[in-house]
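Re: export button greyed out
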Amino acid sequence: MNIVEKILARASGRKEVSPGEIVEAEVDMAMVNDITGPLAVEAFRKMGAEKVWDPEKIVVVLDHQVPAESVNSANLHKIMRAFADEQGIEKFYDVGVGGVCHQVMVEDGHVTPGSLIVGADSHTCTYGALGAFGTGIGSTEMAAVFATGKLWFRVPETFKIEVNGQLQKLITPKDLILYIVGMIKADGAIYKALEFTGETISNMSISGRMTLCNMAVEVGAKTGIVEADQKVLEYLKGRFESKSVLPSSDADAEYEKTFEIDASGLEPQVATPYSVDNVKPVSEVQGTPIDQAFLGSCTNGRLEDLELAARLIEGKRVHKNVRFIVQPASRKVYLEALRRGIIETFLRAGAYVGGPSCGPCFGGHIGVLGSGEVCISSSNRNFRGRMGAKDGKIYLASPATVAASAVKGEITDPRAMEV
Amino acid sequence: MEVSGKAVKFGDNIDTDVIIPGKYLVYTDPKELAKHAMEGVRPDFYKVAAEGVIVVAGRNFGCGSSREHAPIALRHANVKCVVAESFARIFFRNAINIGLPVLECPNIVDVVEEGDLLKVDLEKGTVLVVNKNRTVKGVRLPKFILEILNDGGLIEHVRRKLSK
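Workaround output, generated via the alternate export path:
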């Protein structure tokens, strides 16, 4: 079996599972946020349930509309506070405490190798970075999980994506995953799992693996995963003490398809409007004027991302026609960026630095686009109207490309900038 | 389970941001969400759908976010069923769970035109194009999923099971 099959077999109490089978599995951890949580709470009550199956296994993170920008949002937050309190859910992250849910889940030790995690958010697949099976579900299903701790899964076929070769200077895991999305296409892996392997992945940081797994859903995949290795164990020290055996794919594991990628010649990649799979090398879109640049989100709001962008913008100014919005993905990332002087670099350059939230990425609030405006963003989706105005245009790129573009006022190859 | 209505057609990769834009996610009232269904690609959809319609679309319908607000908005805008060449996984599950029938049906966009009268038989997994007297075969849903739909969604399904 491959790693995905092994995790589903373990969680469903079976010796073996194979693709296409439907299994009922026990969930190790369940996460909701302030947008999907209230619907789950409502469904939970309507089902006639009273107590959650295990308050220790539920995480509630307020991250989408934070701090509340409207009375409606404030009321949604109240629902989640009251639910956490009533059910004795201690892993509750209020405004200011946590940050973007997926960052908080990984950074606070709620994700462990080999675990099965469901989240009422499509980017739950991010947890594959630690060798966990993370997948997004809806609110009503989450209510059923809250009540029973179980959910049915179709065992997915798996695509093996083997990446070798060293990423060149200023080429990041984001460029790699954009390239992969462009290759597989938005519907190329519906209901499949993606397993990333190869020396490029082994050499990649946990932060980079999170970026990679985060965007698995953009090709329709159920999850993206990297086998846990020594790096993961190092990362988990002080967050979670795991004595369990790390699951890995067998030598004779089966895959529906295998892709081999040589990453050594990769250029910076950009996904152009209005589809995440509309990916081009930066050379084909450079010079496109921008109105806004956004650095943050569950895809690219980590320390490594901020550090790289800060290196590019150090001593320079954000272009006069651009607003550059920066949001560290969590309170912890923010604090460390502050200590290292990264936040100061951004502020001196004329960027707006805000607290963690999902706001700009999904057009909820903060940094919404006006009619016809163009934004280069480190986030994960460029759908029509995603960040505000219906005719706004979003180009997705790496933190390096975002920072370089913010300085030049147009889409720019970061390699052309003096560092 | 059989549903019928006029076809309203869409293309490939209809994402959840156009089905229900992010700014409306602060609402949980299905009636309020319904008013903005498909606003991102067809602002008059709410009016068009009022008489009861069947959405016909290409590949990867419902891609993107896990927001259940998307199928809720469609269902309460009076969409009887979504027939698409393929669905994004989370949308597919969400639709069933909130009681919106969905049917995967390869080549449906080649056969159906906007305004055609459709009859969808979910047990059989077929779409009858009434005015063309043509039947298109889709992918039949497993029995346990049909049961959830017959109960009107997962909430009612769980309640019914609990009351047994």
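Chain B has a mean pLDDT of 95. The button fix ships in the next patch.
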